[in-house]
Amino acid sequence: MKPSAANKTAYAILVLAAGLKFTLLAFVIPPLMQPDSIGYITFANQFMTGWEWFWERNSTSGEDTYRTIGYPAVIAAGMWIFGDGWEQGVIGFQIVLGLAASILLYRFASLALDRWWLGLLVAVGYTFSLALVYEFHILTDALYGHLIVITIATLGLIAMRPNERATHILIPAVALGLAFLIRDFTLYMLPVFVVLVFVAVVRRRNSLAAKTAMFVTVLVPVILLSGAYASWNEHRTGERFITTGARTAALLPLVQFAGQGVPIFDQDTPLDEAARASLSTYFYADVLNINRYLEQKGLQGLEMSRLARDRFMQTLAEHPLIVARHVLRELRFLSLSQKLINPLNAYSCLLYTSPSPRDLSTS
């Protein structure tokens, strides 16, 4: 098959796949929820009730300091555009972005594997695997994952095609900036993207100045946005930070380490007192209970976040092998690959029923 005909066939199949998802959304699978969904909806509702919170805030507790603004803004846009049907609007947007990611993934994979049908298999496997599950949830996972795939696939195309238009570097630049607004974890992934961007631009046939400009173009949006975000929170609260998410993200592994017998909470601080009073299951429920205990003691979100982050860094310095083992276990390389390219895994996940966002938001 000629390359142009092969591409048209692949694009048509991927568009049909997206159409199937819209059919499932309309007739089979309602928008799904997880506990975190309520937090995003609560934050989104602030957009609909006024803008005072955007300029003035005294506390570092609350959803608008715990989470980044990106996904709640998407939900708020869905509420504004679609009204009561905002859940379907958000899911539809996630499906459309997934289509864009799968097309770029097809282009990159078909070039890397030197077979258009192999590239199509990779793209179809992606679009009907764990991405499918996330797309039907009111969660950040789908948008964030698609933006990362768009970034990596585009950088891969630029690396493998030295004559690719230089302006295409704007795609990963925008995608990476938006990814930061969805999840500030993007900052911790920045060293990885520095390497990927370098590999992508170093093979270009442009001048050194042009290559440098392309390199900077991808990374500057994330750096500027992170600085602006910290300044925004400083204006509202008097404290410079991006989110207080570490009070759960950094605390969960600490709780799990404690469950393995590692002496994590053996000091004399509010965090240790809260942990000793709350630990029972050594999982996420304990994290929430520790946070509630600290809130009852008068600590705000930023204070809890700093306590958890500092203790995690201390644990990393004192027990690096335990932390490394935890990271490797959480990655589960083989399991992850099965989830990414395994439609049966996605279907089994969707067998579990979840209430609609409207049901949970009123509960």
Description:
The structure is a single chain. The chain is globular and about 70 Å long. The chain has helices at 3-27, 35-49, 52-55, 63-66, 70-82, 86-113, 116-127, 130-135, 141-160, 170-182, 186-202, 208-237, 246-249, 251-259, 270-278, 284-296, 301-318, 320-331, 333-340, 343-350, 357-361. Helix 11 runs antiparallel to helix 12 (208-237), helix 15 crosses helix 16 and helix 17 crosses helix 18 (320-331). The protein contains 21 helices and no strands. It has 363 residues and is an all-alpha fold. The N and C termini lie far apart (55 Å).
Give the secondary structure arrangement, pairings included.
Elements: H1 3-27, H2 35-49, H3 52-55, H4 63-66, H5 70-82, H6 86-113, H7 116-127, H8 130-135, H9 141-160, H10 170-182, H11 186-202, H12 208-237, H13 246-249, H14 251-259, H15 270-278, H16 284-296, H17 301-318, H18 320-331, H19 333-340, H20 343-350, H21 357-361
Helix pairs in contact: 1-6, 1-7, 2-5, 5-6, 6-7, 6-9, 9-10, 9-11, 10-12, 11-12, 15-16, 17-18
Q: Helix/strand-derived class? A: mainly alpha
- Proportion of beta-strand residues: under 5%
Report helical residue fraction: over 70%
Sequence stretches where pLDDT stays below 50 over 5 or more residues: 333-341, 353-363
Q: What is the CA-CA span between the terminal residues?
A: 55 Å
Silhouette: globular
Q: Kindly state the mean pLDDT as a whole number?
A: 87
* Rg from Cα: 22 Å
Query: How many beta-strand segments?
Result: 0
| Major beta-sheet overview | none
Order of helices and strands: HHHHHHHHHHHHHHHHHHHHH
Instruction: Tell me the number of helical segments per DSSP (H or I, 4 or more residues long).
Output: 21
